[in-house]
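Teaching assistant here, posting this on the class forum so everyone can see the example we discussed in section. The complex has two components, and the goal was to see what a joint structure prediction looks like when all of them are supplied at once.
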Amino acid sequence: MYRDILRGPMIVWLVLALLLVVELLATLMHSVMPPLPIGIIMACVVAVCFMNLRRSSPLSRIFAVAGVFWLLVLLGLGAMDPLTRTDVPVVGATR
Amino acid sequence: MSDRPAPAEMQYASATHQAMTAVDGMWLFLATELLFFGGIFLIWTVYRSLHPAGFAEATGHTNLVIGSINTALLLCSSLSFTLGLSFARRGDNRMLVRLALLTVLLGLGFLGLKGVEWWQDFAAHLFPGAGFGIGGVNAGTAQIFYTLYFIATGLHGAHMIVGICLVGWIAWRARANAFSSSWYTPVEVVGLFWSFVDLIWLILYPLIYLQGRP
């Protein structure tokens, strides 16, 4: 009886543990693989499997997608100015 | 408790509709929480891009061992509460109590280690302000890093405390056989919150401890 309950979540947990090890080793070995995308993949696995997003109602999925969408808008618009601004002197400006 | 579904409140068509609305409502709340933490992710991204050297030096002062153990603890806690929910779906309150208490223990372990880490940071004068422990050309940027570090881990810790209280409440209710195979909505809703707190940490962990680590 317990086997049916344990199998799915245990597999997900093993995948997450493996990704954590990969993330850690990539950092310690100064690999070209950046750690943040691995963390994002782990977060997606938690959302889909542990938070059961794959079997959630359409409305729950819409809320989840909307949250990510507006987060991307926040990050995109918020980071656009500081990351693209160049220090160009303005003609006629005094310091 | 019998396996009969709990009666629905008058504004719902059925008990199933009521349960689905509670879960949908939690997802809506979590979407707002994601944007709440999004501000921290944004500031972190911008400052790291503008001052990579200072952030790399400050990252080198963080305790990677504690950060990694804490990540593993949270992954284990998400597993234990997910299993608890599976047992709740079968009406097994006894196993739910055990797994919820295990989740509380893992959460307390996380907070305990985070407390040790903060204590070490304070001892090393890494709290931003006068007498800050990192000098040189990157001192200013390192102070920004540690300001964000204390805000991010503090806010996450506050969510952990709320989560631990909620999971403890689930254990207390399950001990009184409050849940059945036909009604376990609070377990599902609290599980969503707990895993979300785990999810946020999975983003904070590489930002704080790994990215650009020398």
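For the discussion questions: Residues 139-175 of chain B form the longest helix (37 residues). The mean pLDDT of chain B is 93. Think about how each of these relates to the inputs above.
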